[in-house]
Write a structure and sequence with these properties.
Blueprint lengths: L1 E6 L4 H14 L3 E7 L19 E5 L5 H7 L5 E4 L6 H6 L2 H20 L4 E7 L22 H20 L3 E6 L1 E3 L8 H10 L4 E4 L5 E6 H14 L5 E4 L4 E3 H11 L7 E4 L14 H6 L7 H14 L1 H9 L1 H9 L5
Parallel strand pairs: 1-2, 1-4, 2-3, 4-5, 5-6, 6-10, 7-9, 8-12
Antiparallel strand pairs: 9-11
The structure holds nicotinamide-adenine-dinucleotide (NAD) and thymidine-5'-diphosphate (TYD).
The site of thymidine-5'-diphosphate (TYD) has 12 residues, from helix 6 and strand 8.
Length: 335
C-alpha cells in the first residue's frame, strides 16, 4: 500500500492524476487530496472518486504548516501540483503566486524532510526556462523565467533541488509542457476557445497568434509522473513533453474546424505583457528511461473537444458565476 499526498488534487491535472492512480492501482493506493479550493479547485472534478474508501479530501492550504505537519506522518509519496497556475492572473496580481507556489512548496518540503518521505515530486513547468526561438531546452540549461508565474515556479523548482542536495530528501522535479484535456479550467487557451466557440463567442487571440506551445494530453503527463515515481532518480530534473509544437492560430483553426464554426469568431486582441514566443523541451532524458507519450494529438484533441461539448453544465457554471455561488455556500463561507 502506497500512501500519496496529492496537493492541488481538485484542479485540472491533480484531479486527472488522482483518477489515473485509482484506475491503475485500485485498492493498493491510499490518496489524500489537500486542496485549498481556490477559484480553480473544483470538487466536481472528482465526483466519481469521492466515495472511495481509499480516498480522502482535506480542504486546506499548503502554506498552513500546522495542517501539513498533521498530514505528513501518514504519507509515503508527495506530489505537489498545488499552485496558482495562470500566467495572465500572475501579471495582474502576483501575490498568491509567491505565497502558494514558493512558500507553499517550502512548507511541504520542510514537513517531508521531518517525516522521512520516500519520494517528493515537485511539479514544475517548462516555462521556468523562458522562451526559445530555435532548438529545445535540456534539463541542464539555465532558467530564465519571464512571468511572475514562471519565476515563482522556478523558485520552488530550485528550492526542491536544494532539499535533495542539503538534506538528501528524495526529490524529483518535473518540467512539463502545456497540458490539455478534460476538467481544465476555462481560462486557459484550449478550454476557453472551445467553450467560447460552442457559445458562438469570439476567440481572443493575443498578438499575432504565432506563439508556439508544445501540447501534451493530460493523461500522458499523469503517466509520466507515475513513471518517474518508480523509475526516476532522486535529485534529478525531467522534462516532459509530447513534441506537438503548434502555434495558437493552428490550435484555433483546429477548434473552429472541429466544431464547424466560422473564421469570423477569431479576434486579434492586445498581446500579453512579456508574452513568451515559444516553449520547447528536449525529452531525451525521460525517454531514455523508457517513457513515451501514448496519445496522438489529433485524436486526443478531438476527444477533448467532445468532452467539453458533452459536459456543458460543468463549464457553464464556471463561466457564469453560478459555480462561484455554489462553492461559497458549500465550502467558503469566508468569501
Ligand atoms: P489548476 O489551476 O487547474 O489547479 C491548481 C489547484 O491547486 C487547484 O485545485 C487549487 O484550488 C489548488 N491550490 C491553489 N493554491 C493552493 C494552496 N495554497 N493550497 C492548496 N491548494 C491550492 O492548475 P493545473 O493546470 O492543474 O496545474 C497543476 C500544476 O501543474 C501546477 O503546479 C502547474 O504549475 C503545473 N503545470 C501545469 C501545466 C499546464 O499546462 N496546466 C503545465 C506544466 C506544469
Ligand atoms: P495559456 O493557456 O494561458 O498557457 P501558457 O501561457 O501557460 O502557455 O496560453 C497558451 C497560449 O495561448 C499563450 O501563447 C497565450 C495564448 N492565449 C491567447 O492567445 N488568448 C487567450 O485568451 C489565452 C488564455 C491564451
Amino acid at each position: 500500500m502506497t500512501r500519496y499526498l496529492v496537493t492541488g488534487g481538485a484542479g485540472f491535472i491533480g484531479s486527472n492524476f488522482i483518477r489515473f492512480l485509482m484506475q491503475r492501482y485500485d485498492q493498493t493506493v491510499q490518496i489524500t487530496n489537500l486542496d485549498k479550493l481556490t477559484y480553480a479547485g473544483n470538487l466536481e472534478n472528482l465526483t466519481d472518486i469521492e466515495q472511495r474508501s481509499n480516498y480522502r479530501f482535506i480542504k486546506g492550504d499548503i502554506c498552513d504548516s500546522r495542517l501539513v505537519a498533521q498530514i505528513m506522518p501518514d504519507i509515503d509519496v508527495v506530489v505537489n501540483f498545488a499552485a496558482e497556475s495562470h500566467v495572465d492572473r500572475s501579471i495582474g496580481q502576483p501575490d498568491d503566486f509567491i505565497k502558494t507556489d514558493v512558500y507553499g512548496a517550502f512548507v511541504l518540503l520542510e514537513a517531508a524532510r521531518k517525516n522521512k518521505i520516500k519520494k517528493f515530486i515537485q511539479i514544475s513547468t517548462d516555462e521556468v526556462y523562458g522562451s526559445i526561438i530555435n532548438g529545445s531546452f535540456k534539463e541542464t540549461d539555465a532558467l530564465e523565467p519571464s512571468s511572475p508565474y514562471s519565476a515563482s515556479k522556478a523558485g520552488a523548482d530550485r528550492l526542491a533541488f536544494s532539499y535533495y542536495v542539503t538534506y538528501k530528501l528524495p526529490v524529483i522535479i518535473t518540467r512539463c509542457s502545456n497540458n490539455y484535456g478534460p476538467w481544465q479550467y476555462p481560462e486557459k487557451l484550449i478550454p476557453l476557445f472551445v467553450t467560447n466557440a460552442l457559445e458562438d463567442k469570439s476567440l481572443p487571440i493575443y498578438g499575432d497568434g504565432l506563439n508556439v506551445r508544445d501540447w501534451i494530453y493530460v493523461l500522458d503527463h499523469c503517466a509520466a509522473v507515475d513513471f518517474l515515481i518508480e523509475h526516476g532518480l532522486d535529485g534529478q530534473v525531467y522534462n516532459i513533453g509530447a513534441g506537438n509544437e503548434l502555434t495558437n492560430l493552428q490550435i484555433t483553426d483546429t477548434i473552429l474546424k472541429m466544431l464547424n464554426k466560422p473564421q469570423s469568431l477569431k479576434t486579434f486582441v492586445q498581446d500579453r505583457l512579456g508574452h513568451d514566443r515559444r516553449y520547447s523541451v528536449d525529452t531525451a532524458k525521460i525517454r531514455s528511461l523508457g517513457w513515451r507519450p501514448a496519445f496522438a494529438f489529433d485524436q486526443a484533441i478531438a476527444s477533448t473537444i467532445v468532452w467539453y461539448q458533452e459536459n456543458r453544465a460543468w463549464w457553464t457554471r464556471l463561466k457564469t458565476g453560478e459555480y462561484l455561488a455554489f462553492y461559497k455556500q458549500n465550502y467558503r463561507q469566508d468569501l
